[in-house]
Structures are given as C-alpha cells and as structure tokens.
Write a structure and sequence with these properties.
Length: 389
C-alpha cells in the first residue's frame, strides 16, 4: 500500500479538524451559526415529497475506480527557413499523443455538515510509481449545487508520429511513450441549478443530507469550468518531435441544460418522537449536454539554455481560441439510508473537447502550422459508507 502523501495527510487533518472541535464545543460559536444558516432546511421543499433531517455532521469512507486522461492530434505543415529568410514548404505530418492511465483504485475520506463537505481520494492500488489523487469541496442546497475538484494525475505519455507521404523517400514515422511520466493537473468547477425546488432534491442521492420520499424530477441548468495543465519532460523525444512543446494548457467554460430524475424504490418515514426507523432506497439519473463557449488552448516551447546545455528554459507561449463544441456530463447514483447511516453507489462521466488552429515556432529552423484537436475525458465509479452524528 502506498504511504499517504503530505497533501493527503493535510487534507485528512483538515477534515477531522472541522468535525472534532465543533462536536466538542458546548456553546454555539459564530462558526456554528454560519454553518446552521448555510445548511438550514429549505422552506420551499414539500415535506410530503422530500424529508429534511436536521443538519448534522457526517463522516464517510469511500472507495473508487477512476479513469482519466487527455488525447491530442496535431496535423501540421513544417516549413524550412532558408538563410535568405524565404520559407519553403518542407513536410506535412501528424502527431498523435495521449495521456491515459489504467483503471486506478483509490480510497478516500469525506466529512461535512449539512450542505457542505470536503473530501480527499488517493490512489492506493495499481502501479505505485504513478498517482491519481483528487481533492473536492461540495455545497448542495435544495436548488443549487457547487463542486470544486482538483485532480493530480501522472502516467507516461504515448505518441505516434508520421512525416511526409507514405511510400515516398521522405516518409518517416516514430511511436512510443515517454520514459518519464507526464503530469496532468486540473481544477474543475461544476455548478448546477434545479428548476423544480418543490418536490425534487438533487443532493438526496449523492450527499444523503435529504431524503427523497417519492419519485420526482427536474430540468437542470449546468455550468462547468475546466483549467487543465499537461507537462512533459523537455528532454523527451515527443517534445523534440513537437518542436520543443513540453507544456500545454486549456481553459474551458461551458453552459447547458438537461434533466435529472430521482426514482424512489422504497421509503419508510422515521418515528417523529424518536427519529428512528428511517428506511429509504433511491436512484438518480442525470444528463446535461453543454456548449463550450470559451475554449482557449496554449502551448509553451522549451529551449536549450545556451549558458548551460544540460537544461531547458521556458520559451514562447502561443495560444488559440478554439471552436464552439458540444460536450456533456452524465451521472447516475443509488443510495440506501437506514436511520443515521447510508450506503451509496455513484458513477459519472465527463467528456470535453477542444479544436482550433495555431502557429508554433519549431525550435530555430521550422514553423509548425498546426490544426489541433483533442479531448479530455474521465469517468469514475465509487462506493461510500457514511455515518451522521
């Protein structure tokens, strides 16, 4: 088993630090009052459709299987710069690259109060040399939901290059993967709004803070912001083949609408005097197509340091604004609640694309006119056991 990273230890410490002091305090502090205000039961929800227990502290343990990564295709035209400064066409080529790991297994811990929660998941099974960790913060009321995630993922990058026309003398090709792992880091913010705030609670299946008593659905508005960064060792062959590019980033802002539905298979309301006897089994299906309105992609070239040929220094950065694209978010979940405990199973899939054109300086000798297209995708399936205090 992997030894937990410093970030994981710090996250768990923060999570426990939120819960334990507040449980130990007898007097109501300003912090407690703010939490109670944020997590106060909704006044718009129909109590016959959604049961709202009093806000409480919740600690849960989880295990997940995750698969994430990014692929990119560059169709480019290379032009040789003659000494007289007149360019001439040299070769056409295609460079495909991808950064996808295996099906990583992780364990995690989450803690929160009412609508708020903080969680950390860390890869513990699989190849110990590579990581796939995730930090998340959630806020979910009866009508609004906000989630902020940070993912840190490493794995060797694969590539496939072809230059020139196949069957001609100037044709060449190369394929392989990097010796050192590439790194993908991403900040992902999700915001959703449910239009039915009378009989539907989106958080009921995914957080367990509310209990859906009868089946109901709602049209949803969704927004997603992704800021991703991929870094490769400048000494890797793929960096040389791409003209020295060892770092590229993407920023996307998407908006869309879809539908979410809670299916209640079984519900037994708890005793009003003791609060005991709650039983509930519910499912959720959500699909939200989105249009990416802002789609910016940047590439950074690394050059050999003339003062120290053993190292590379950051050079020029070129950016493009990508085309408008259709992307989507899908999610499914199940929860079984029994008094102050719950067991939930959920899965999600995100797919977001980028596409456009840009001119990239190719070292000191070539100009790489590229048509760039790619896709960031991730899916996860997790099992969570939680206890309310």
């Amino acid at each position: 088993m992997r030894i937990p990273s410093k970030a994981a230890v710090l996250s768990v410490t923060m999570i426990l630090g939120l819960v334990l002091p507040c449980k130990a305090q007898e007097k109501t502090t300003l912090f407690n009052k703010v939490l109670d205000l944020i997590s106060a039961p909704s006044r718009t929800l129909d109590p016959t459709a959604v049961y709202q227990p009093a806000p409480s502290w919740t600690v849960s343990l989880s295990t997940e299987i995750r698969h994430a990564g990014i692929n990119q295709k560059n169709d480019f035209e290379m032009e040789f710069i003659d000494y007289d400064g007149i360019p001439r066409t040299f070769l056409f080529g295609t460079l495909d690259s991808w950064l996808y790991g295996g099906y990583d297994k992780s364990i995690g811990v989450q803690a929160g109060y009412g609508n708020l929660s903080l969680g950390w998941n860390q890869k513990v099974f699989g190849d110990k040399e590579f990581k796939n960790n995730n930090l998340s913060f959630d806020f979910a009321s009866s009508g609004y939901a906000f989630q902020l995630q940070y993912m840190d993922f490493t794995h060797p990058m694969g590539y496939d290059l072809s230059l020139g026309a196949e069957g001609t003398d100037n044709y060449s090709s190369a394929s392989g993967e990097t010796e050192n792992p590439a790194r993908l880091r991403a900040f992902i913010a999700d915001v959703s709004y449910s239009f039915n705030q009378r009989t539907f609670a989106y958080s009921a299946v995914y957080k367990g803070d509310k209990v859906q008593r009868r089946s109901a659905g709602s049209f949803m508005f969704g927004s997603k912001v992704i800021n991703g960064l991929v870094e490769v060792d400048p000494e890797e062959l793929i960096s040389t083949l791409s003209g020295g590019i060892a770092r590229y980033s993407t920023t996307q802002v998407s908006f869309g609408g879809g539908y979410s539905y809670n299916i209640v298979a079984f519900h037994r309301q708890p005793d009003e005097s003791t609060g005991k006897g709650l039983r509930n089994l519910a499912f959720n299906l959500t699909a939200i197509p989105m249009v990416t309105l802002y789609n910016r992609f940047s590439s950074t070239v690394y050059e050999v340091n003339e003062e120290n040929f053993g190292e590379f220094i950051k050079g020029a950065t070129t950016s493009m604004n990508g085309n408008l694209l259709i992307n989507y978010v899908t999610r499914a979940g199940m929860i079984y609640s029994r008094e102050n405990m719950y067991l939930s199973l959920n899965g999600s899939y995100d797919s977001f694309s980028f596409k456009g054109k840009m001119d990239i300086p190719y070292r000191d000798y070539y100009l790489n006119k590229s048509k760039i297209s790619g896709r960031f995708a991730r899916w996860s399936a997790g099992l969570r056991f939680g206890v309310k205090f």
